[in-house]
Amino acid sequence: MNTGLAILLIILALIGGLVGGFFIARKYMMDYFEKNPPIDENMLRMMMLQMGQKPSERKINQMMSQMKTQQKSTKKKKK
Question: Would you say residue 77 has pLDDT above 80?
Fold first, then answer.
């Protein structure tokens, strides 16, 4: 009986650790991407050049502001 109880507690602790670890890692990655967005101005310039467009500073600033507002709106929707 004691062995069965020990195994049950170990399994419950493992499941709890996995669930807790998943949500902690998810929160950490969301904060990381919010502070360090994966696309910056230089990458945007390179993508535009590869698509055959001539990137102007105004167009790049406009696209970056659109991405930031979209990121904020999706964050508000999740809350």
Answer: no
CA 21, 22, 27: angle at the middle one, nearest 5? 100
6-42 tens-digit pLDDT: 999 999 999 999 999 999 999 999 889 888 878 888 8
Displacement of CA 78 from its chain's centroid (Å) = 13
- Please report the sign of the dihedral spanned by the C-alpha atoms of residue 66, residue 36, residue 29, residue 31: negative
CA distances from 61 to 19, 41, 65, 66, 76 (A): 40, 8, 6, 9, 23
- Comparing CA positions, the residue from 57, 60, 56, 78 lying closest to residue 68 is 60
